[in-house]
Design goal:
This protein is mostly helical. The chain has helices spanning 2-15, 18-26, 28-39, 47-66, 68-73.
C-alpha cells in the first residue's frame, strides 16, 4: 500500500504543481473523519477537531480560489490529482 501511495503521488506531480499535491494531501483528514463515521461507526469529530477541519477546508478553498490553473481549467485542473 505504501508503494501505491508513492506511485500516485509521483503521477500527480507529473501533471500538476507541488502546491496542488500538498493541498490535496492535506485535505485527507477531512475525508478520513467523515468516512470513519460512515463506514466504521465512529463518532464525528468533537468541537475542537471540527474547528480544525473547518480551518483546513477554508485554507484549501482559499488556495483553489487563488490558483490560476483552476481559473483557466475549472475543476478539471485537479481531476488527475484526486
Amino acid at each position: 500500500i505504501f508503494v501505491l501511495g508513492v506511485m500516485t503521488n509521483m503521477q500527480s506531480l507529473a501533471v500538476s504543481n507541488v502546491d496542488t499535491v500538498i493541498v490535496f494531501r492535506a485535505c485527507t483528514p477531512l475525508a478520513v473523519a467523515l468516512l470513519d463515521a460512515v463506514f466504521l461507526g465512529r463518532e464525528l469529530p468533537g468541537k475542537r477537531s471540527s474547528f480544525s477541519l473547518l480551518l483546513l477546508a477554508i485554507g484549501a478553498y482559499g488556495y483553489v480560489s487563488s490558483d490560476a490553473q483552476f481559473s483557466l481549467n475549472g475543476f478539471s485542473a485537479y481531476y488527475t490529482v484526486s
